[in-house]
Amino acid sequence: MKPVAKQIRHRKAFTIVELLTVMSIIVILIGLLVPALNQVKQYATNVKEKAQLKAIETALELFNSQYSGYPDSTYVTPGTAGPAGYCGAEKLAEAMVGQDLMGFHPDSVFRQDGTDGLTPVRLLYRPGTLPARPGTFLQLENANAYPLGELYRNVGTFDPCDFVLCDVYGRVTNIRTGRKVGMPILYYKANTARQSHDLQNPNNPDNIYNWVDNRELLALGKPWDPTPTATPHRLLSFPGDTAKGILAEPAGERFYKNTRNEQVSIWRPFRADTYILISAGWDGEYGTADDVCNFEWRFRD
User: Fold this and answer.
1) Does the structure show a pLDDT above 90 at 265?
2) Phi, psi (rounded to 5 degrees) for 251
3) Distance separating alpha carbons of residues 285 and 221, to the nearest angstrom
4) 162 with 148: CB under 8 angstroms?
5) What would the pLDDT profile of 170-208 be if each residue is shown by its tens digit?
6) How far is residue 103's CA from residue 95's CA, in Å, rounded to a whole number?
7) Is 50 exposed, middle or buried (0-12, 13-18, 19+ CB in 10 A)?
8) 184 has which bridge partners?
9) Best CA proximity match to 218, nearest among 261, 146, 176, 164
């Protein structure tokens, strides 16, 4: 019988070539696996976002049944509805959770100051008014509500304290907390007294939807961009692609192109009798192919 020490000395070890081969295989497998994992993660986040939009839709139906109408989405300029501008995304947040996250006040007419223009600023949203409010239509954990001043360093015409409902993609870093939060969910209410969906004239006064409802919010750009207004969201202004022969579009045209319902023979938008919700999607840019909406989104170059 051979001594144990001698047997150990004669054991074979891995060669450098074998180690490099195994390491190369591992690297290849990781390279194949990472994109698949990213796709799975993106799919799961999309499902979560669709669930959030569904929760908002349910809350909007409750609002509609109680107040016989959906919340207004018309953008009103500073000075006409309070000291700051007020857009569709902000009005959605007010309807769902109130301007102070304590519920919508039934006397509000969706002004930035929360009043009918005859009473002092935000009188309807003081704590003493809670008995007049039915509570929030959307649970706060589903609302993902944040003040604009925590998303954008420059809020333009808006009040930095006004809330918006954000999506779940975590594309924005909260300025105050450093946490990852989403982009505002855009809200557009259909005007059922109108009949048009004019791709050639975004400013047609007969359009069922008005792209201007969230124009000023889109003009704030992308919060993470060092020069956020230098490259506007495609939903606001599509620059075109000279290399592909794609011409630039007038402001607003992209909104009407991507919300057109091609399942009907005449030019009509999706959800022509209710409202549109738009999340900026994974890339945080409105008007691109990964947007998530409450209708069958169609991105068209």
Assistant:
1) no
2) -55, 130
3) 9
4) yes
5) 999 999 999 999 999 999 999 999 999 998 899 999 999
6) 8
7) middle
8) 166
9) 164
Q: What is the dihedral of CA 135, 155, 47, 104, to 10 degrees?
A: 10
Mean pLDDT of 81-105: 93
Distance of CA 220 to the CA centre of its chain: 14
C-alpha 298/C-alpha 293 separation (Å) is: 10
Assign residue 295 a region: left if phi > 0, alpha if psi is -120 to 50, beta otherwise?
beta
CA distance 224 to 215: 19
For tokens 């004239």, the residue is 201
Q: Which amino acid is at 147?
A: P
Q: How many Cβ atoms are within 10 Å of 275's Cβ, its own excluded?
A: 20
Whether the CB-CB separation of 190 and 261 falls below 8 Å is answered with no
Those residues with Cβ within 8 angstroms of residue 47's Cβ, 6 or more apart along the chain or in another chain: none
218: three-class secondary structure by DSSP: helix
Query: β-strands 180-181, 172-173: how paired?
Result: antiparallel
For residue 292, give the 3-state DSSP assignment: strand
Both tokens of residue 179? 């946490």
Q: What is the pTM of this model?
A: 0.85
Indicate the DSSP class of residue 294.
S
Instruction: Kindly provide the b/e burial profile for residues 163-192, where b requires at least 16 CB atoms within 10 angstroms of the residue's own CB.
Output: bbbbbbbbbbebbeeeeebbbbbbbbbbbe
Q: Record the tokens describing residue 234, joined without a space.
A: 């495609």
Q: What's the CA gap between 164 and 80, in Å, rounded?
A: 20
